[in-house]
């Protein structure tokens, strides 16, 4: 799986304002910004992303995924210049 493929899978199952995915084919990191995260605790946000990946999280397709999950307001409050 490529970063673009994983990004497409997440985007197909979760409306995102911003989505960045990087990784080596097994170990991934993602920055995911979605209105669906509003009012949810971090664990609930991660569970929502895992739900979009389904069985891929239980096979070796996505061995590990480190996520930064943000609402649009949280994303806007960060400095994206660095």
TrEMBL record:
Gene3D superfamilies per the record? BolA-like
Q: What InterPro entries does the database record attribute to this sequence?
A: BolA, BolA-like_sf, BolA/IbaG_stress_morph_reg
State the family it belongs to. Belongs to the BolA/IbaG family.
Protein name in UniProt: BolA family transcriptional regulator
């Amino acid at each position: 799986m490529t970063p673009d493929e994983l990004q497409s899978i997440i985007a197909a199952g979760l409306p995102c304002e911003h989505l960045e995915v990087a990784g080596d084919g097994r170990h991934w990191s993602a920055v995911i910004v979605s209105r669906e995260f509003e009012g949810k605790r971090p664990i609930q946000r991660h569970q929502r992303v895992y739900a979009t990946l389904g069985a891929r999280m239980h096979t070796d397709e996505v061995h590990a995924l480190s996520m930064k999950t943000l609402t649009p307001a949280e994303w806007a409050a960060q400095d994206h210049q660095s």
